[in-house]
């Protein structure tokens, strides 16, 4: 059996698109998508348990700053 898999060079370009010198990268995009998903899931849980949104927004803001 040959070592064919050992010869693969994995070097993908991290940029999705570069617009006017500003590059959008995969990990940045996935970080924003993950943060948005977390926001909507936790907000849904707060509404489901009938907890006031006055408590949710500051908590999420401080959790965002801490990450």
Question: Would you kindly provide a written description of the structure presented here, covering whatever features stand out?
Answer:
- By secondary structure, the protein is α+β, with helices and mostly antiparallel strands.
- The protein is built from 2 helices and 2 strands.
- It has helices at 26-48, 53-66; strands at 15-19, 22-25.
- A two-stranded antiparallel sheet has the order 1-2.
- Strand 1 and strand 2 form a beta hairpin.
- The longest helix has 23 residues, at 26-48.
- The protein starts with 14 loop residues before the first strand and ends with a helix.
Please describe the topology of this protein.
Layout (H helix, E strand, L loop, with lengths): L14 E5 L2 E4 H23 L4 H14 L1
Antiparallel strand pairs: 1-2
Helix pairs in contact: 1-2
């Amino acid at each position: 059996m040959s070592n064919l898999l050992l010869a693969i060079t994995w070097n993908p370009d991290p940029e999705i698109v570069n617009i006017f010198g500003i590059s959008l990268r995969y990990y940045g995009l996935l970080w924003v998508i993950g943060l948005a998903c977390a926001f909507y899931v936790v907000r849904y849980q707060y509404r489901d348990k009938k907890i006031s949104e006055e408590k949710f927004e500051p908590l999420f803001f401080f959790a965002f700053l801490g990450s």
